[in-house]
Amino acid sequence: MNLSNGTLLGGRYEIVEKIGVGGMATVYRANDTKLERSVTVKVLKEEFTGDEDFRTRFKTEARAAAKLSHPNIVNVYDVGEENGIYYIVMEYVHGDTLKQVIINSAPFDNLTTLSIAVQMASALEHAHKHGVVHRDIKPQNILIGVDGTIKITDFGIAHAAADATVTTTNNALGSVYYFSPEQARGGYVDEKSDIYSLGITMYEMLTGRVPYDGETSVSIALKHLNSTLPNMQNYNPQVSNILQSIVRKATQKKKDDRYASCSQLLSDLRQALLEERSEMKQKAELEEDVTIYEPRKDTSLEEASADAATIGVMMAAEKGVTQEEAQDGIQVELMGKRKEYDLPEEGVSFDRYSKQLRISKENDDYETDQWDEERKRAAHKKQKPKQKPRPKRERGKRQQMDPEEEAYYKSQEKKVTIAAVITALVIIGIITIAGAKVLNGDGLFSFGSSAQADTMPNFLGMEYEKAVTEAQKQGITLNKADEQYSAEFEEGQIMDQSVEAGTTITEGTSVDVTVSLGLKSFPMPDVEYDEEDVAVEKIKSAGGADPEKEYVFDDVVPQGVVITQDPPAQTQADSSTKITLTISKGPETPTVTVINFKGMTMGEAQSKVTEIGLQVGTITVDNNATGEKDEIISQSLEPDQEVERDTKIDFVVVGEQTVKPEEPEETEESTPQTPENTTPSTSGSQTFNIDVPTSYVDANAINVKILRIDSASSSVDVAYNETRALSDFPFSVTVSGSGQMEVQLYIDNVYQWNQIVDFSGGAQ
Q: What angle do CA 311, 315, 319 make, to 5 degrees?
């Protein structure tokens, strides 16, 4: 349900416009009529309002965010419900999301990135100290106000750290592009998960791209688990080494290898920011002393150089040099006068030590002295060569000539003689050829024709231009019908002809040929973590040859999925490049080693069970045991025991510890318990809807398990345990029970939700 403009919530919040839609809620800008200010109102989507679990989670957002007071966290003002509309009122930030700014302006420089990251880390440090983990740090949840202030918003899936266990629900918990490895596994999430996501966000700010990309969420998640973080300096050479080190430490695969806390990360960010500002200040001080010289309109290039030398124009780094040194090495900026001096468009300057005028054009330097020489040579070619004047002679009278004049005339006579001989030879040759052609019956003027070919020649492999000439000699017309890339034929060679070689032909036969474009060059597509057939199709579509395949065992990557590729993605390749794909064969051994789960909470153990290749079996609650609630006190499989993969392991956990009341002494007034004053237990059934899961391992084999827990008797049994295909979802499951019981849903052994059900009256 979309709220129309003018709708009034809580008697004071007037909807002005819709500004966004999230996974759980629609976001509006509204006017607080009581305080006369703009506010943001987040309204829970209609499809979730009937779900108690979602309503509870929605309220959790308000409680989690409301207790946080920090300049870099969006303030929560109010929470309410009206006619089935659940809403939260928050601070309105006039600006844009960091994601939009990245799209428009990335890559950012080091100073900008550090300034934003310091504010984000400061906000997360405050939240973590108050027991709140955001779990969904990404540029879409970072707002940048018009004053440059950073605000983190959307604590919709944040929980107090003390209550947090496994981070998988029917909601999509953030964007997979910024997931931590433990989130990708559906494992335990804590403050270090936010640090990882902040590191990925910094990577995107510095490079303008996310480090891990793919066509499916599964392929991206697997890259978070296994792929090495790409070098940021390959995409932005200006990234400092210290900043790259900070990002790499924040995004380590293992949580223990990351920063221990946001406080440590914030300390390094602030130190890097100080160093970057200091470096920028030094550069600014140098640039302040640079003098720009603009010559007059009527000034020549030589005059401009001399004038600049006279006034001592030079770089700031050269302060302290003498006037003579300044004249040796000056920097002259000919601003706006490039056309007048017939110079390239970009700009010119004198390089101090080489004494050469340099021209910067698209990041390539050309030396002007070389450029000038080329212009001089071109001008020289246009000039007529100077000849020595011919000596004057009187007509009809032979005069006595000096040796130089005599040598000149002898030279001219020799040239005339040679020219006459050559002319005679040419004429004789023409007469000979013409006579031969007449005798052969070809006709006097049939120059260039030759004998007609009886069969089609083989043009394959010939250069097209040469083939055209050869075809003309044999009375064949050659037509270029197509051009194609080829690994067999070089560029310009004929790779196919419409009439096969050796075919009998007649005069004037026309043949279509296909000319090779040579090897097709293309950037290697990213096929890591794609399925085998998908990866091969991508490579062949790009222009590559069939890749070679190597199959290896892998405990993490599913069978039939590409683990690595060679050459790497974005490497330039062509149709002759050897491409090798390493493809997973799945786990090498059918057995796994059991670990010691004692002392863990059930939430921690669930992700570990899946991680090592086991399945959660029966969970028994012992209300008489001592320890923390949900703490595991025993397990059905011994630590270090080797068992088959997917073996079920049962646990006994600490339940609610109760103290039995003392039995009252029997008195004459005591009324014995009778069936009339005892509430009988009743049985019944409840139907549950199983929605499409947001994450799964194999779309064809998704395990769905429903546990039924009787807290009164501390018993846990499996009410439903089936493997279904993704196409089966959504579907319904009916569970029977007696009295009040807890029902839990697991997808691929990952906790999804729980409900307290009174089978005599329905869900609580």
A: 80
